[in-house]
Design a protein that fits this description.
Length: 515
């Protein structure tokens, strides 16, 4: 068999070396009469499947970055070890997909050059390990972080049209080595089978847009107003969470609500703190080493004021943005202390923003006294009660009676026979579909979804008509003047037709040219 046009002998030899891990010249290969066997074809198919498997995992890895800070916090609570595990995830994923992609490209080039696909045993072993690692990653995701499957479904509303174009393009390029294979193989049954499978896949891809839905496929004049921003524990990418500095940074990001968490000290002072232990966001292990593992509510206010609530932010760098802080900001970070609820209310009052909070821990035996202490601080602060958004479900009726002006926010969807209509709901972004968001909007129910950090997710929720989002990245979402993309349905239809027609013509050209 002569070398195919455009495939020089040194190139073919190099490809064989990389793919088979043997330096075999093309002449020797011909003399031995080696051909691509059914087993070799099976390994090529396995390479292709592993590549697709790792590609899907890469997509998931990018999607779950929106929520990865929660995973970092979870690991810290379990192991007391802080690390940005998203970097580990992305580096490992990039290595796996690069390896499988290189093998796939080598195999396709060898096929175009008419060379045998003799995959070396080392590559076979590494491919199997790659498939097992990715399978383990998917399994762990399903067991420990099942809500991310819903995140992936939402992401398809943002990426669906573009994934369709990319997949059609990839399958169109695949027509070249496929045509080469069809014309070279002598097995008629295999030819028909491969060609039939390819045609079915392409027809399915050409019709896929019929099933693609996205709230961002709409006319410009139908776009709802931009969602208001709620600072999740302030602006935690710019300052230590749940501190006054974080509140002020959030105000600079034009947030309308400061979202926080409240606990009550042993002597009855409500203060801002998310974790039940103080170890992650203070230096309690240095100041009170024997009491570090105690619940935050076991400390009195005097002890809490001795703790440094800022330096951990510089030491652990919970977000990449920490590295870009100015010298003045860094100095201000080291001066942060745990703020009381009274201080936070005064700061919110002066900045004319609302404050929304959870009261923790709800399973505490003295929870009613926590509610009473919190209500007392709110009523004495002088803040307009409509600027206070109450999240806790415990003793809600008591709160309504003692502070009727406080806005009640519910962490659930409305019930079918709701006695008192809901005005505000606060839910994870995975829990509401675009259709539900639109229906709540029509019924004048304010919907806040959390935690939304990535622009693609913010864009989908913006197009859906959500009222507000809780975010760690207020400095990023503040700068968005428009969703990432917005396509009128007529434009999308035109793109669909052009892509499919171009693909079809390119496939015909590939089969005609290589005939």
């Amino acid at each position: 068999m002569a070398d195919p046009p455009g495939c020089c002998r040194p190139c073919a030899t190099c490809l064989l070396c990389l793919y088979s891990c043997q330096w075999i010249t093309t002449k020797k290969e011909k003399r031995k009469g080696l051909r691509t066997t059914k087993c070799d074809c099976s390994w090529f198919l396995f390479i292709f499947c592993v590549f697709l498997f790792t590609l899907v995992w890469l997509y998931f890895a990018i999607i779950i970055l929106n929520d990865f800070h929660n995973f970092n916090e979870f690991i810290f609570k379990q192991r007391k070890l802080w690390l940005d595990w998203s970097l580990v995830l992305l580096i490992a994923t990039a290595m796996l997909i690069t390896y499988s992609a290189v093998l796939l490209v080598l195999a396709l080039c060898l096929q175009l050059c008419g060379q045998p696909l003799k995959l070396h045993w080392l590559h076979k072993t590494l491919l199997i390990l790659t498939a097992l690692v990715v399978a383990a990653a998917f399994t762990g995701l399903g067991i420990k972080w099942a809500e991310e499957w819903r995140s992936a479904r939402i992401s398809l509303q943002a990426t669906g049209p573009f994934l369709h174009i990319g997949i059609v393009g990839g399958m169109t390029l695949l027509a070249w080595p496929l045509a080469s294979f069809i014309y070279r193989t002598r097995n008629t049954g295999l030819k028909v089978f491969v060609l039939l499978v390819y045609c079915v896949l392409m027809i399915a891809l050409y019709l896929a847009p019929l099933g693609i839905t996205s709230p961002c496929i709409m006319e410009e004049n139908q776009l709802p107003p931009k969602p208001a921003l709620v600072g999740h524990r302030g602006a935690p990418m710019l300052a230590p969470e749940n501190t006054l500095m974080s509140l002020h940074k959030a105000v600079n990001c034009d947030v309308q609500v400061f979202e926080t968490d409240v606990m009550v000290s042993a002597d009855g002072v409500p203060f801002l703190m998310h974790d039940e232990e103080l170890t992650r966001t203070t230096n309690v292990q240095t100041v009170f080493p024997k009491r570090a593992a105690l619940n935050s509510t076991a400390f009195n206010w005097t002890d809490l004021q001795r703790l440094d609530a800022g330096s951990w932010f510089l030491e652990r760098s919970p977000f990449p943005t920490v590295q870009s802080l100015s010298a003045d900001d860094r100095n201000q970070v080291t001066e942060q202390r745990i703020p009381s609820l009274e201080q936070a209310l005064q700061a919110a009052k002066q900045s004319n923003i609302s404050i929304m909070f959870d009261l923790r821990p709800e399973n505490h035996s003295d929870y009613q006294s926590f509610v009473n202490a919190t209500l007392e601080v709110i009523l004495q602060s002088g803040i307009p009660l409509q600027q206070v958004l109450w999240l806790p479900d415990g003793f809600r009726e008591q709160v309504k009676q003692q502070a009727p002006g406080v806005q009640q926010v519910y962490g659930r969807k409305r019930l079918q026979n709701e006695k008192e209509p809901l005005l505000h709901v606060n839910l994870p972004y995975q829990d509401m579909s675009s259709e539900e968001i639109r229906q709540y909007r029509r019924d004048n129910i304010s919907v806040n979804l959390y935690v939304v950090n990535e622009p693609w997710l913010f864009s989908v929720l913006w197009c859906s008509g959500v009222s507000s989002v809780t975010t760690n990245a207020c400095q990023v979402l503040k700068e968005m003047k428009h969703p990432i993309w917005l396509l009128p349905s007529s434009t999308y239809l035109m793109i669909w037709i052009v892509v499919d027609c171009t693909s079809f013509l390119a496939i015909l050209w590939a089969f005609f040219l290589l005939k």
